[in-house]
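Data deposition worksheet. Section B asks for the primary sequence of the deposited chain exactly as it was used as input, without tags or linkers unless they were present during the calculation. Section C holds the resulting structure in token form. Section D is free text for depositor observations; keep each observation to a single sentence. Incomplete worksheets are returned to the depositor.
Section A, Depositor: J.P.
Section B:
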Amino acid sequence: MEARGEKYISKQIFSLNNASISMLFIKLSLKTMNKRKLRVLVLGAGFGGLEISTILSERIGDSLDLTLIDKNDSFFFGFSKLDVMFGKRSADSVKMYYHKIAKPGVRFRQETLVAIDPEKKEVATNTGKYSADILVIALGADYDITATPGLSEGGNEFYSFEGAVQLGKILPTFEKGNIIVGVTGFPFKCPPAPSEAVLLLHDYLLQKGIRDKCKISLVVPFELPIPPSFGTSKALLAAFKEKNIEYIPEIMVGAIEPGKKLAVLDDGTELPFDLFMGIPEHRVPKVVEESGLLFDEWIPVDKKNLKTKFAGVYALGDVASMGTPKAGNFAESAARIVAENIISEFHGFESTEEQNGLGTCFVEFGEGNVARVDVDFFSGPSSSGKHFEASKKIAAEKKSYESSRKARWF
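Section C:
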């Protein structure tokens, strides 16, 4: 009996030693893995790219090797283009230069992407090649001016920075006639922007003393200016009526006839103009189109966590089908979800954070007043939005939003 007892105890000690050795091996393995920095490639330095780079730097900067790539040298808020177009701010004053980014574990490269291999998580640029453990595609949407016949020859657009700058030179020379602000394709970034443009244009022409010599028309594909928010739409329609702005809903501009100065709507209706200010068709960057990531024109993602069909590859913002509008605030929110997923997986856990479809849009009403709409795209059977009446107070909120992001990202 005594010998059998000693043999049993010996087996238990041996088993415990084996378990301890196994646990020690696991701990040593994790320690070794964590010593190697997590390689992350972020393509695109817009709202999404800047936010995810900032979060990862703050949370795992010492263990991070993140490369942020963008073809441009600077960032600007989309709404600042209206300020540039109407002469309220200079083009250079609204730019934030990427070379000022100085965050642990993050480096910026101003390069042009020429190829993306999502399966290998590798990219090629005009100057070199990069590979990563995690690939985040946040390249936004490009503008396809040529998709609308006659637009480049006979019209203007204010969605690109260059287009807004150009209109900023044209508007001071405009004296009288018909001005059309028209959408040429859907979806498009920042759905309130066309409405904001006509209201700010009204103010601009009024200040020039020529408003009574001009007709302003707005052509949009929606029944309401801001479909998720009846309150905001009602306020905008009232402002259009008060300021004598013609609202032409549920249709788009299909072509421009430069010689005749006509905007041809999708149903064949012809609208004469002296100045056309268009919202051009949007598309993914060509390098994304050639990557094998697309389905139905955009990158499909799991709307909860923004993962693509490729392991370790995320897509967010305007380039992806996220189930929310193409607007910076939603890209920023999506970046937080992606960051939480990356950090959790780096530490060996599964993230419970999911995209909630909530967002906020500021809407310029003119005369220095700004409204706000808080929208919800996921929780109910359809999207909804809560309207906060235009005021100077919300205008100050918008300025604070801009300054806080500038301080955080740069």
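Section D:
The first strand starts at residue 38 and ends at 43.
Residues 143-283 form a domain with the FAD/NAD(P)-binding domain fold (CATH 3.50.50.60).
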